[in-house]
Amino acid sequence: VGAYRRSVLLVQVRLLVAEEAARRLNIPVNTGEIEAQYRAAQAQAGGPEQFAERLATQPVSVDLYRDIVRADVINAQIGYQEGKIRRPSQSQLRAAYAQFLQSATTANLTLIRVPDAATARRVLGQVRSDPAAFAAIGAQFSENRQPPQPQDLPLSGLPADLVERLERTERNTVIDYRLANGDAQTFYVIRFGGIRRPTFAEARPQLEAEARQQAQAAGE
After folding, report:
1. Quick one: which of 14, 24, 52, 190 has the fewest CB in 10 Å?
2. Reported pTM
3. Cα–Cα distances in angstroms (integers) from residue 67 to residues 57, 76, 101, 124, in the given order
4. From CA 61, how far away is CA 67, in angstroms rounded?
């Protein structure tokens, strides 16, 4: 409670200062941009409920977070007008998006690690003939006997030969894969859930937010 009270005080003072500065400089508050940033934060968390759950781990409420966003947007507007900071152009955002994709593109993989190639072939045949048995079979090879869980792994961190193969593989396909590291080899049976590449429209709020940080600092 004490931490939350301090957060409220800090945010409210920061917001009052920003709003007073905007009033004196005749800078209108862009409520549409505030709402867009707030909705983007909700979407990034997986939805309003997940967003509230994430905030619950910090001394920040949903309403207080909206005030944080409001102060950020106002300070950025002041920074653009008074701090001589240029808004990013469409071409600059596109260039940032190309770099963003390198880390944001993910492959959805559920991995079963098996001891050897023969086992990989056997397990592959089993799960292809009975796809519903994938979890149960995977649990047999897990140290804690728990079914393997799907993971969204950055494409840039996967082996090049696996990425090339996934690019040619349909979603919801089960494949076997041998990872070679010098003389060492590791064998997997993988359920491939597809490759996820955020669109420019999806990534734009985050890209603009990153570009706005300089303006916010200047506005403060």
Report:
1. 24
2. 0.65
3. 18, 14, 30, 53
4. 10
